[in-house]
Design brief:
The complex is a heterodimer of chains A (785) and B (285). Chain A contains 19 helices and 33 strands. Chain A has 785 residues and is of the alpha+beta class. Chain A folds into four domains: 25-33 and 477-623, Aldehyde Oxidoreductase, domain 4 (2-Layer Sandwich), CATH 3.30.365.10; 43-135, Aldehyde oxidase/xanthine dehydrogenase, a/b hammerhead (Aldehyde Oxidoreductase, domain 3), CATH 3.90.1170.50; 192-285, Aldehyde Oxidoreductase, domain 4 (2-Layer Sandwich), CATH 3.30.365.10; 288-463 and 626-784, Aldehyde Oxidoreductase, domain 4, CATH 3.30.365. In chain A, a hairpin with a 5-residue loop joins strand 23 and strand 24 (490-494). In chain A, helix 14 (503-515) packs parallel to helix 15 and helix 17 (664-683) crosses helix 18. Chain B folds into three domains: 7-54, Uridine Diphospho-n-acetylenolpyruvylglucosamine Reductase, domain 2; 64-174, 2-Layer Sandwich (Uridine Diphospho-n-acetylenolpyruvylglucosamine Reductase, domain 3); 181-282, Enolase-like, domain 1. Chain B is 32% helix and 26% strand. The N and C termini of chain B lie far apart (45 Å). Classes of the chains: A alpha+beta (785), B alpha+beta (285). Bound molecules: flavin-adenine dinucleotide.
Chain lengths: 785, 285
């Protein structure tokens, strides 16, 4: 590890702000990671999944002698029933294995238990499911139609959650508008596609009756709480471990019924039981997301200033509601955050979550924001066209530039740089040079386009923000224990549960600066409910802000105690003590004592501190912040082939502001990965159902995440506006890449389509869809000619 | 995604292989060549062969040589064998250019030319090559040996004229004339994916006019084939944009398009038109 250099914050040698290498990587890149599927087990499970999207379950015939579990065996297990106390939410229950009826293709109906994965799959092939199939509802609009069959009796009309908002005086303002611009946007369904699909391993301990569930999850503590509740066991009888986790992107923050079954089985068999999901199961039966119709209208005054927004959001939430967020997570986020980075005082919205016979929806990186950003950013480009303004100009007229800013939905935006990042992006991309190149290319029959996306990213919000949703389970705070052992090594035990984000490194950097020791002497421990403090895990761009804040609080307490110990041992005033290079020093003298000696002293010679200091060096910090907004401007340049509809992203630029950057390399990595997913969402990835509710994209040849070939180089530019709402001054940035990319790419595609006078407002904008709008243009031209 | 149980047999000679095939074909026995199509299908349990006859140890099936009129490609020759020049003839450049469009590098190191033909995926580049150039298939079984012309070999999606006890032992690809021109183009949404449409063209130019045009289209119909309407639009014309466009349009009108969730009939025709024109344009570079 390199020695620290003068940090960007002036005061001293600093680790924060430096692109040190990730402490987690040596193990991962040398194949020494520990993943759930690496564990040996006595029993293996294979789920028999419904081939029908809707229907009544008749008898289930298992081969003789096989151990096959069905709903009939699980009468004592509660259904997964997440709850919101607001927004007309209807509580619906999900049985661990389908009971009486099936509600989507891929729903687990039976679980085969055998001595190997192969054998379990062989037996599963022989299990006969007799399902009396009925017509499914696949599209949310069909589920909303009058007289549509009801998927759960608790939710009439198939609406499970409904949010409405209308600001006072809305109608008058609307009527006063000079122009109203409208977009009908469609976002098709996607799967988060973590590299590691789901996996779980439950081991029963005969000595004490405890079960250890090792599973690939983003929230180990909540898994413990939820599963113990459902099975009626004490939480202390369940230990949940998230070992190395190969990506989650939200798909692994929800409770899966499969994990509940594994714990139940381990207790029943008093043995070890494992399940490793395959990719096909992951694509059809793990969580989906982003299946929305959004209609958005903007009312502008004569100067193209946005006066009011009116939105209708229909989110297809699938067959059940996800725990803990509930399926309100998409529609309600769309409602709360639709205005994005724009100053607009009047707002009306109807946002509904609609049940269908499809796989259950759960959060996926960015949740609704990739869709609402795409929608409002397209709206802005349409408005620019209507006012004959440049897309950059109309944004400048409307972006928020006074802080703190309270939005029409009551969100408080802290200081950010919406205009500055836009200006930076415009400057760096070189708009005039691009426009010249675009013109020249068109003359040769090539169609280039440029698209901008400006957005705000609400990050690091604690329990008050979640409480506003009326959640029965209200996440938000985080606790961190920082301890120095008697040999002077530092451990931080955290409730967050990183799974690729590099938090072991960034939190170590924060502690290193407080204690004056290098980060590689600091071990960050997470992902085990027996050793980590209760916490909410890692999701919603929260961990660096919230766990980082808790880490700083705890580390400061440790620092304060070290100063006291040093003052005692060096017989100097506390004010004269500095911590540096693993030592406490008396400023201006050569008197020093190492942290290791101090630690040993406070443990093994505690009597010397005469009751002034408690023995040991263990401190705890808890942090529950209000939330802080990151922001960015993305720019995409695309090359659109009008003959095939193919879009190549030629250039991609991000100007972003996530407050103080703890580790620039890790921050850039988050943006790179996010943009890759966002480009996939914009162009390639789509779960396609047929009319019978079967999935046509159940492998990675048909469901298409982008590969390295499809990715442009991503150019990054930073502004650092230290957050006033976060004690580390850092803001979250885990989702921004994904949030901005669909909007930037779609605006670029539509810019390229300008000469044809057609538009496309669908993601993914597949070649077939682009050709369809171009064909319209060709036919219109033929008619005229 | 674990295959159903099967037994793997590893014959050392062609004779042994043919004997096993004749014995096991009726009991769900299949040839295993590179395994790049068969193994994934088995993992999905779309195929559950009870016996696999692995031909990878058989000497002699790796021949890749020319007798001056045709290039003979044995059943063990991998896609990667064509990365470099396989024969001293313009055909080598064609095969090398086409090979680079098949899947990804690791797959090309295992998958075989003959396996692609036997598998008969409508989008296979080698099936398109065999159909366009008029390959001859050499099928062997315990009953004997027979030759099958490319035009008679492909019978539909993943279906060929091979009987279940026949091994596709060799394929003969006719060499190209020294002055022959070729062009190839395919469309896929991601690099390395199966083509949603592809075209291979060859022709000669005499007195400034195109002759002996062959225009093959793959990935658009249940089997790749030559499109006569497009060839006649090209023959007798000078190479260039007007003739290329006419041939491309003729091809897109002539095909009976396959449809799937990302490609309806109209779109498939659009793609055929684009790939044929681009293959023809490529022939000029
Ligand atoms: C991710 C991925 C992408 C791919 N992309 C492409 C692509 O873009 N284009 C493309 O063309 N291919 C592609 N492939 C398929 C690949 O080229 C295969 O190698 C090829 O289709 C089959 O050759 P094989 O030797 O692997 O045959 P195998 O998989 O071993 O066998 C395929 C079938 O042919 C039979 N068979 C094989 N050899 C013979 C023989 N000599 N005689 C009789 N029957 C035989 C087998 O019994 C089996 O039914 C892709 C594969 C993968 C995994």
């Amino acid at each position: 590890m390199n020695a620290p250099t003068k940090g960007s914050h002036g005061d001293a040698l600093k680790w924060v702000g430096r692109a040190i290498r990730r402490l987690e990587d040596p193990a991962l890149v040398t194949g020494q990671g520990h993943f759930t599927a690496d564990l040996a087990a006595t029993h293996w499970v294979r789920f028999v999944r419904s081939p029908n999207a809707a229907g009544t379950i008749g008898n289930i015939k298992a081969p003789d002698g096989a151990l096959v579990i069905t709903a009939a065996d699980l009468k004592a297990v509660k259904k997964i029933t997440p709850m919101l106390h607001k927004f007309e939410y209807k509580a619906v229950g999900q049985p661990i294995l389908a009971e009486d009826v099936v509600r989507f293709v891929g729903e687990a109906v039976a679980a085969v238990v055998a001595s190997s994965e192969e054998e379990a799959e062989d037996i599963a092939d022989l299990v006969e499911l007799n399902i009396d199939a009925s017509m499914p509802l696949v599209d949310s609009r069909d589920a909303l139609a009058n007289g549509a069959p009801q998927i759960h009796i608790e939710a009439p009309g198939n609406v499970i959650v409904k949010g409405t908002v209308k600001t006072p005086g809305f109608d008058g303002v609307w009527a006063s508008a000079a122009k109203v611009v409208k977009i009908d946007a469609r976002s098709h369904r996607q799967n988060a596609t973590p590299m590691e699909a789901r996996a779980a391993h439950a081991a029963y301990d005969r000595t004490n009756g405890r079960v250890t569930l090792t599973c690939t999850t983003q929230m180990p503590h909540l898994m413990r709480t939820a599963i113990a509740d459902l099975l009626g066991m004490r939480e202390s009888d369940l230990r949940v471990i998230a070992p190395d986790v190969g990506g989650g992107f939200g798909q692994k923050m929800s409770l899966c019924s499969e994990y509940v079954l594994l714990v139940w089985l381990a207790r029943k068999l008093k043995s070890t039981v494992a399940w490793t999901e395959d990719r096909r199961e992951n694509l059809i039966a793990s969580f989906h997301s982003r299946d929305q119709y959004v209609t958005l209208e903007g009312a502008f005054d004569k100067d193209a200033k946005l006066l009011a927004l009116r939105a209708d959001v229909v989110s297809n939430v699938g067959a059940y509601s996800c725990f803990p967020t509930t399926c309100g997570v998409e529609p309600l986020m769309a409602m709360a955050e639709m205005p994005g980075p724009y100053d607009v005082r009047h707002y009306q919205c109807l946002a509904r979550g609609v049940l269908t016979n499809t796989c259950t929806m759960a959060a996926y990186r960015g949740v609704s924001r990739p869709i609402i950003t795409f929608t409002i950013e397209r709206l802005m480009d349409k408005a620019a066209k209507a006012f004959a303004l440049d897309p950059v100009d109309i944004r400048r007229r409307n972006l928020i530039d006074k802080f703190p800013y309270t939005s029409a939905t009551g969100l408080v935006y802290d200081e950010a740089t919406y205009k500055e990042t836009l200006d930076m992006a415009v400057h760096e991309i070189g708009v005039p040079a691009f426009r010249a190149r675009q013109k020249e290319a068109r003359a040769r029959g090539r169609y280039l386009g440029i698209g901008f996306a400006t957005f705000s990213e609400r990050t690091g919000y604690g329990s008050p923000a979640f409480a506003a949703r009326g959640m029965a389970i209200t996440p938000g705070w985080e606790t961190v224990h920082v301890s120095v052992d008697p040999s002077g090594y530092v451990e931080a035990r955290i409730g967050s549960s990183p799974h690729g984000q590099g938090l072991r490194t960034t939190l170590a950097q924060i502690i290193a600066d407080e204690l004056g020791i290098p980060p590689d002497l600091i071990k960050v421990i997470h992902g085990d409910t027996d050793t980590a403090p209760y916490g909410w895990g890692t999701f919603a761009s929260r961990s660096l802000v919230i766990s980082g804040g808790a880490t700083l609080i705890a580390a400061r307490k440790v620092r304060a105690k070290l100063v006291k110990i040093a003052s005692h041992m060096l017989e100097a005033a506390e004010n004269d003590i500095v911590l540096e290079g693993g030592h406490a020093k008396v400023a201006g003298t050569d008197r020093t004592v190492s942290i290791a000696s101090m630690a040993r002293e406070i443990y093994t010679q505690a009597h010397r501190f005469k009751g002034e200091l408690e023995p040991g060096l263990n401190e705890s910090g808890t942090y529950d912040p209000p939330g802080t907004f990151s922001n960015a401007c993305h720019v995409a340049i695309v090359d659109l082939d009008p003959d095939t509809g193919f879009v190549k992203v030629e250039r991609y630029l991000v100007a972003e502001d996530a407050g103080r950057i703890i580790n620039p390399m890790i921050a850039d990595g988050q943006v790179h990965g996010g943009v890759a997913q966002g480009i996939g969402n914009a162009l390639l990835e789509e779960i396609v159902y047929d009319g019978d509710g079967g999935i046509l994209t159940a492998n990675l040849a048909d469901y298409m995440p982008p590969t390295a070939h499809e990715m442009p180089n991503i150019e990054l530019h930073h502004i650092e506006t230290p957050s006033t709402q976060s004690i580390t001054k850092a803001k979250g940035l885990g989702e921004g890449g994904t949030i901005g990319a669909p909007a930037a790419v779609l605006n670029a595609i539509n810019d390229a389509l300008t000469p044809f006078n057609v538009e496309i407002d669908i993601i993914p904008a597949t070649p077939q869809r682009i050709r369809a709008v171009l064909r319209e243009a060709e036919q219109a031209k033929k008619k005229i000619a | 995604m674990k295959p159903a149980p099967f037994v793997r047999h590893v014959p050392r000679t062609l004779q042994q292989a043919l004997a096993m095939l004749s014995q096991l074909a009726g009991q769900d026995g299949r040839i295993l060549a590179g395994g790049q199509s068969l193994v994934p299908i088995m993992a999905f349990r779309l195929a559950k062969p009870a016996h696999l006859i692995d031909i990878n140890e058989i000497a002699g099936l790796d021949r890749l040589d020319s007798d001056g009129t045709a290039l003979t490609i044995g059943a063990r020759v991998r896609h990667a064998a064509f990365h470099g020049p396989a024969v001293d003839n313009p055909l080598a450049a064609l095969l090398s250019y086409v090979a680079r469009h098949i899947a990804h590098y690791p797959i090309r190191m295992r998958g075989t030319f003959c396996g692609s033909l036997a598998h008969a995926d409508p989008a296979s580049e080698w099936c398109l090559t065999a159909a366009t150039l008029g390959a001859t298939m050499i099928a062997k079984s315990q009953r004997g040996e027979r030759e099958i012309a490319a035009a008679d070999f492909f019978e539909g999606i993943m279906s060929t004229a091979l009987a279940e006890d026949e091994l596709l032992a060799e394929v003969r690809l006719p060499l190209l004339a020294a002055d022959a021109k070729f062009g190839f183009n395919e469309f896929s949404r991601r690099a390395g994916d199966f083509a949603m449409a592809s075209s291979l063209v060859t022709y000669r130019v005499a007195d400034g006019k195109i002759s002996e045009a062959r225009i093959g289209v793959g990935g658009a119909e249940s089997s790749p084939r030559r499109i006569e309407e497009a060839e006649s639009a090209l023959n007798g014309q000078p190479p260039g944009d007007p003739a290329f466009r006419a041939a491309a349009l003729a091809a897109s009108d002539a095909v009976d398009p396959l449809e799937d969730h990302q490609t309806n009939a109209e779109y498939r025709r659009d793609l055929v038109r684009a790939v044929v024109r681009r293959a023809l344009e490529h022939s000029l570079t």
